[in-house]
Specification:
The chain starts with a helix and ends with a helix. Helix content is 59%, strand content 5%. Strand 4 and strand 5 form a beta hairpin. Strands 1-3-2 form a three-stranded mixed beta sheet. A two-stranded antiparallel ribbon has the order 4-5. With 382 residues, the chain is mainly alpha-helical. It is elongated. Bound molecules: zinc ion. The site of zinc ion (ZN) has 7 residues, from loops.
């Protein structure tokens, strides 16, 4: 390393250049921190040894992990997110516009350089995105993730990362095959040689290989030369389709989604979030996503078996769940509000089909009345 520094010094002197010693650092890449580091000197001035270094906006850590790089992006993204939230609240912007602005203004900050570090664990980014989505819905931190994505019709940020990484690989591969002399293409060529011929473990390439296999595009890896029209769209669509399958499984498997799975059929931004005033949106969102204190949810914390979480406001001896309070609880106050706010069609002979129809109705007036009714129920029960 010292030889390299001496060489740099000589080179600069020959060409009449000067090196900024404050910006010059020495970095080591190893599994653990190296002890007994020798002193490095450039032009008689000691050079600092650092364990991480920001190069072209991406933080490189000594251990070859990008966890700290993602943390750094999240820290910068945090400022942008809260500034965005403040402005959106001030201007009272609708929820779809807020989501769009988040994707246009904060996503690029979070995803900066993700083509390089996107193979690492992306939990920290997912948590960041979910925090914003939960703030929009004003629901508990413990709300099941599938409900949050489902209500807002949003895909996880990891899909964007994986898509960008694969598109970057595809672009490099095409340029390499066209004989481009770029440094990045030469590096890919070298990586492929090391990976295939010498069986060197390269996490970035392994990730590309695994992703292509998962997406049913293994032939691209085998040939490393075929072109696919609209590669980005193909990858994005397949990633989204796979996510939707996982989402459906989650909704059907999660015990908290027992009611949710009755009325949640389509993965889309729910209409009530677009047409209701903010206060009513929040009430209905809380009711739909089990952010309430109805016995079916609240008694979980006291380890009461599910079939014993009964309504204590009437003598019907029925489960105190959303369906009971919407349609059959005989508490006087609830009955009178129900008469005022829920149409007779739903009140007479209620069943799962009518429950689904009511929760998915498109009429703004009906949704507003439903939100008022659930707000009344939640105030009474808690
Ligand atoms: Zn009841």
């Amino acid at each position: 390393m010292q030889k390299a520094l001496d060489g740099l010094d000589r080179y600069c002197k020959n060409w009449g250049l000067s090196v900024n010693i404050e910006k010059t650092k020495i970095g080591f890449f190893s599994r653990g921190k190296i002890r007994n580091i020798p002193n490095f000197v450039l032009n008689g001035v000691p050079v600092q040894v650092v364990w991480d270094y920001v190069y072209l906006g991406v933080l490189f850590n000594y251990n070859n992990k990008f966890h700290n790089a993602m943390k750094r992006q999240c820290l910068i993204g945090n400022r942008a997110m809260f500034s965005l939230i403040r402005k959106c609240r001030k201007l009272n912007l609708p929820i779809d516009v807020q989501l769009d602005l988040f994707e246009k203004c904060v996503h690029p900050i979070l995803l900066y350089g993700c083509e390089v570090w996107g193979y690492d664990s992306l939990d920290i980014l997912s948590r960041f995105q979910l925090r914003f989505l939960k703030m929009l819905l004003d629901v508990y931190k413990t709300t099941p993730t599938c409900m949050v994505y489902g209500e807002l019709g949003r895909y996880p940020i990891r899909i964007e990362v994986q898509c960008q990484l694969l598109v970057y690989w595809y672009k490099l591969m095409k340029e390499m095959n066209d004989g481009a002399n770029k440094m990045s293409c030469l590096m890919l060529k070298l990586h492929l040689k090391l990976y295939h011929v010498q069986n060197v473990k390269l996490p970035w390439l392994s990730h590309v290989n695994t992703m292509l296999n998962k997406l049913g595009l293994s032939y691209l890896w085998t040939t490393q030369s075929l072109a696919v029209s609209g590669f980005k769209n193909v990858v994005k669509q397949r990633l989204r389709d796979q996510f939707l399958q996982e989402w459906n499984t989650d909704v059907n498997a999660n015990s908290l989604c027992f009611n949710y799975r009755i009325y949640k059929k389509d993965f889309c931004l729910e209409r009530y979030l677009l047409c209701l005033p903010r206060k009513l949106q929040v009430k209905l969102a809380k009711f739909r996503t089990s952010n309430h204190k109805l016995p079916i949810h609240q008694h979980r914390f006291f380890n009461v078996p599910r079939n014993e979480r009964l309504c204590d406001m009437c003598d019907k001896n029925e489960l105190g769940d959303e369906f009971h309070y919407l349609f059959s609880c005989t508490d006087e106050s609830i009955v009178s509000e129900r008469r005022k706010l829920i149409s007779p069609y739903y009140r007479s002979h209620p069943n799962c089909l009518k429950y689904e129809q009511l929760m998915n109705c498109k009429s703004k007036i009906k949704l507003m009345k439903l939100a008022r009714f659930v707000a009344h129920v939640m105030i009474l029960v808690c």
